[in-house]
Amino acid sequence: MISIYKSTEKGLESIEEIVNGCWINLTDPTPAEIEKVTALGIPQDFITYPLDVDERARTEREDDGKILIVIKVPMYVGPTVDVPYTTIPLGFVITDTVLVTVCRHSHEIIQEFASGRVRGLSTAKRNRFILKVLLSTANKYLAYLRDINRTVDALEDKAQKAMRNKEVYELLKFQKSLVYFTTALKSNELVFERLHRTQLFRMYPDDEDLLEDVITENQQAIEVVNISNNILSSMMDAFASIISNNLNVVMKFLASITIVMSIPTIVTSFFGMNVDLPFDGFPFAWLIVIGISVGVGALVTFIFMKRDWF
């Protein structure tokens, strides 16, 4: 799908034709849409590279001045999949006349910018536009990391009483997401540092300050994801031991109950033998047998409780 936007006095408006100073957004484009954009002199590789979900974050520059910037943006897939949070490439193509964004999937960051809710957005200021998207990306990583930490805290409360591996599997899903985040954030950091060394964003002081904010937020996200990853790894090891201990407690309780319940069987079996036994002629001997069973059972129960075997 192709969408074309341009900033006007009324704000961001959707237009039909490509004009100077517009923003072209490509979301899983068709061959015809790719051909329409490449007619502007943009290399086709600049459009197809970000469509590869395994494409790494990087920058590339053509001799005629056209620039490709690819970063990794976070994406929430859903709670039922193996990896609830993942990353996908987002590409920026900068030319002298237009700005093109390319992504395989419709992403909420791009949707937010396309909605016109972002203040001070101008499609003609292409560098400033890109920096705002980069800053929004870093903030989105931090927001998703907070969501992951809240979910992990909720799973921690459940895992303390768990005796199955369901909670551990849930934690494993989020650990996979943190691995994707770690790899993406580090690759983005290399791209940001490279952009900081170039003259692309040094034409205006505000752009340079905004790029420094992007680098700072990205570094903060890296620190948060590293801390979360270390905590989650230790937590999974601890939860595996907790589940094992919970099962041992249940098995110990069942074994103790089995021993206590077997005592009446032993006593009544002894008095049920066809030989001379005490209390043979006593009419209420069965009460004595029950009393002995209860007494021995209570004694064994007391001993088990003193030794914390129950």
From TrEMBL:
<dbReference type="InterPro" id="IPR045861">
    <property type="entry name" value="CorA_cytoplasmic_dom"/>
</dbReference>
<dbReference type="GO" id="GO:0016020">
    <property type="term" value="C:membrane"/>
</dbReference>
<dbReference type="Pfam" id="PF01544">
    <property type="entry name" value="CorA"/>
</dbReference>
<comment type="similarity">
    <text>Belongs to the CorA metal ion transporter (MIT) (TC 1.A.35) family.</text>
</comment>
<dbReference type="InterPro" id="IPR047199">
    <property type="entry name" value="CorA-like"/>
</dbReference>
<feature type="transmembrane region" description="Helical">
    <location>
        <begin position="253"/>
        <end position="272"/>
    </location>
</feature>
<keyword id="KW-0472">Membrane</keyword>
<keyword id="KW-1133">Transmembrane helix</keyword>
<dbReference type="GO" id="GO:0046873">
    <property type="term" value="F:metal ion transmembrane transporter activity"/>
</dbReference>
<keyword id="KW-0175">Coiled coil</keyword>
<dbReference type="InterPro" id="IPR002523">
    <property type="entry name" value="MgTranspt_CorA/ZnTranspt_ZntB"/>
</dbReference>
<dbReference type="InterPro" id="IPR045863">
    <property type="entry name" value="CorA_TM1_TM2"/>
</dbReference>
<feature type="transmembrane region" description="Helical">
    <location>
        <begin position="284"/>
        <end position="305"/>
    </location>
</feature>
<keyword id="KW-0812">Transmembrane</keyword>
<feature type="coiled-coil region">
    <location>
        <begin position="145"/>
        <end position="172"/>
    </location>
</feature>
<protein>
    <submittedName>
        <fullName>Mg2+ and Co2+ transporters</fullName>
    </submittedName>
</protein>
